[in-house]
């Protein structure tokens, strides 16, 4: 048997014992009729947390973003402008186009997760009869593909002012918004005060089994509730899930900074190996994610590295790369592209797991650097 350290994503987290207890003992009703007291309590809690008039509990973050798009872009053929690395654009199967009839136009995301506001303003359309009407701008905070980057507050405020100037609603995909709040040490309400709608996920670093919330004005949520029903998101006695989300906000969210701290420790260790093949930019690391870059001069590909991290060699078990119980260690991660690996820390990665991961990653990275020397072109 091998000891597994799963760093693929914070979505692999499982409900805490407190969540399970709350789920079993939750007060229930029919949420489609608005009669589930636990769901109502969660929605009120989220609205207050984000400084919005109302909130809506939905099955997933993807549905939350799609509902926001459908409400803001309520004419088929409308345009929404998003970053080219955004979750809405990269990881939601083009649902905005397929389901809502909305064109997603992209701006180049900078390494910090932002995009150029002057370019955005130049791209806003609607006066020409030949063009679609720009009806929404969406941002992601933290920015996953950029490595869990936290968007600068001033940039969000400037973007909000620009959107208001052009009467454009601003949506924030805040799946990991509370990670941004922990990093900035400011309330989430402050981060989203210029946004017309916000999506917040409970099943990533917050460890709930499922669910997201969408927040905005009373009118927005009224329309969102209709869209949720259309998409099959009315879950009836969904207080069973909402109960876990409430516990997540009360008990797990305050500890997110520990995930950031452990991620920074792991990043510093990799950086401190001074390897030519693998590099980490620790200074630009904000939250619970580490992006490991593989040198362009290396013949190695990310998939090869992941495969090796998932294996236990004889050299490891005969040496010191094992647990005190003589178990080999497997580290799971994901690749963003051929030259980038993402490692994600979360609530279930404790100091012992972190140490095992450091041990394994150090062994494998050194082994691979020796086996695959850089090729100079």
Would you kindly provide a brief summary of this structure?
The chain is of the alpha/beta class and about 375 residues long.
Would you mind describing this structure in some detail?
With 377 residues, this protein is α/β, with parallel strands linked by helices. Helices cover 40% and strands 17% of the residues. The chain has 15 helices and 13 strands. The strands form three sheets. It has a seven-stranded mixed sheet, sandwiched between helices. Strand 5 (134-140), helix 7 and strand 6 form a beta-alpha-beta unit. Helix 2 (37-50) runs parallel beside helix 11 (239-252). The longest helix has 21 residues, at 351-371.
- Mean pLDDT, to the nearest integer, reads 97
First-to-last CA distance: 43 Å
Query: Percent range for helical residues?
Result: 40-55%
The count of strands amounts to 13
Could you give the order of the helices and strands?
EHHEHEHHEHEHEHHEEHHHEEHHEEEH
Approximate shape = globular
Strand order of the largest sheet: 2-8-7-6-5-3-4
Structural class: alpha/beta
Strand content: 15-25%
In DSSP terms, counting alpha (H) and pi (I) runs of 4 or more, how many helices? 15
Radius of gyration: 22 Å
- Uncertain segments are none
Largest sheet: 7 strands, mixed
């Amino acid at each position: 048997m091998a000891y597994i350290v799963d760093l693929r994503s914070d979505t692999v987290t499982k409900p805490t014992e407190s969540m399970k207890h709350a789920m079993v003992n939750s007060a229930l009703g029919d949420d489609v009729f608005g009669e589930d007291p636990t769901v109502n309590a969660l929605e009120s809690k989220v609205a207050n947390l984000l400084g919005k008039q109302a909130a809506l509990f939905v099955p997933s973050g993807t549905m939350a973003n799609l509902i926001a798009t459908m409400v803001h872009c309520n004419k088929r053929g409308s345009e929404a402008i998003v970053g080219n690395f955004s979750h809405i654009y990269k990881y939601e199967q083009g649902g905005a186009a397929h389901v809502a009839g909305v064109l997603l136009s992209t701006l180049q995301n900078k390494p910090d997760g932002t995009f150029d506001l002057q370019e955005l303003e130049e791209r806003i359309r609607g006066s020409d009869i030949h063009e679609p009407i720009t009806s929404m701008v969406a941002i992601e905070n933290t920015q996953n593909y950029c490595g869990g980057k936290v968007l600068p507050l001033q940039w969000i405020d400037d973007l909000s002012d620009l959107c208001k100037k052009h009467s454009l609603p601003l949506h924030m995909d805040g799946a990991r918004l509370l990670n941004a709040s922990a990093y900035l040490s400011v309330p989430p309400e402050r981060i989203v005060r210029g946004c017309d709608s916000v999506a917040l996920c409970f099943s990533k670093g917050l460890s709930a089994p499922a669910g997201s919330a969408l927040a905005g004005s009373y009118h927005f949520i009224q329309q969102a509730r209709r869209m949720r029903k259309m998409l099959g998101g009315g879950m009836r006695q969904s207080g069973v899930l909402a109960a876990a989300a409430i516990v997540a906000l009360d008990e797990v969210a305050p500890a997110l900074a520990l995930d950031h701290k452990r991620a920074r420790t792991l990043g510093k260790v990799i950086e401190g190996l001074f390897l030519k093949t693998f590099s980490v930019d620790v200074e630009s690391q904000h939250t619970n994610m580490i992006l490991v870059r593989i040198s362009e001069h290396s013949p190695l590909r990310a998939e090869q590295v992941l495969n090796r991290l998932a294996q236990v060699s004889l050299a490891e078990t005969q040496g010191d790369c094992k647990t005190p119980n003589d178990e080999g260690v497997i580290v799971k991660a994901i690749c963003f592209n051929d030259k980038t690996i993402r490692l994600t820390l979360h609530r279930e990665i404790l100091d012992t797991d972190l140490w095992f991961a450091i041990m394994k990653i150090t062994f494998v990275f050194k082994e691979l650097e020796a086996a695959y020397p850089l090729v100079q072109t």
